[in-house]
Amino acid sequence: MVLKRYALALALLSVSVLGLTGAHAVAAPDPDRLRAAMIFNLTKFVRWPEESLAGSDILRLCIVGKDSVARHLSAVDGKKVNGRTLAVEQVTGVVGGCHVLVVGGSNVEARPSLGMLTVGTDIDFLADGGMISIDVENNRMVFDVNLQAARSQQLQISAEVLGLARSVRQ
Question: Does the pTM exceed 0.90?
């Protein structure tokens, strides 16, 4: 159990999927690159309702608003997540059809539809109904989960991820 928890923690914090190698590995990692890696890895531990996937082999990750992590998320476009191909795109206006919605900035009002996981970095994101908020605390990546908001969209976040969260709002 402990080994499984450490493996999950390593997966969540891994930045290898974003190409951090060589000389770049020695420098202090870019927090936005780490957030992008965490978002990508968190998607591996969420179960979406079947009706939101509608038999598609695509998992749409949409970015709305100004988010500095967007340029790093483009590096995971086309990668596989639980057998589905991740399609990363910047969206404006209507965000229907997205499975993961990365919300940039506090002035963006996003209304999730069934099966849409919302991720943000704003301090009030969870209080405003967001599901996962990623932050840097004491030079560490941390995240908080609004489980009630996730359940309202019929999303299931793995118990292992919930155990690694800094806080979980029921």
Answer: no
